[in-house]
Amino acid sequence: MWGTGMERKPSEIITDFLNFLESAKNEYESAYADVGAEERKEQAFLHDLEFAPNKNERNKVATRFQQRNVMLMIVVFGMDVYGYM
Question: Is 76 exposed, middle or buried (0-12, 13-18, 19+ CB in 10 A)?
Fold first, then answer.
């Protein structure tokens, strides 16, 4: 606001921007780690599917995998998947 005596100093604006950048970096690193963890879980499901001894066990693993994916879509994307929300 110009002329009201409430102008912010350039140093305050720069400080706010640098804080924003640091916050964005931290959020990115956290999200990147979360994605890596989810990829490891997905890989475990795929291995369980591959090495299941029979059709019934494969079906159980596939059902758990599908339920996990539905919950991820609800939590991460806020999607109304299969009317769960």
Answer: exposed
To the nearest 10°, the Cα dihedral for 32, 75, 60, 51? -10
Rg of the chain over Cα atoms, rounded to whole angstroms, equals 23
Buried/exposed 21-56: b ≥16 CB within 10 Å, e otherwise? eeeeeeeeeeeeeeeeeeeeeeeebeebeeeeeeee
Can you give the pLDDT at residue 85? 47
Give the global pTM.
0.61
Q: Rounded to the nearest 10 degrees, how much is the dihedral formed by the CA atoms of 12, 17, 23, 24?
A: 170
Q: Are the C-beta atoms of residues 69 and 41 closer than 8 Å to each other? A: no
Token pair in block for residue 69 = 């994916």
Residue 63 to residue 50: CA distance in whole angstroms = 14
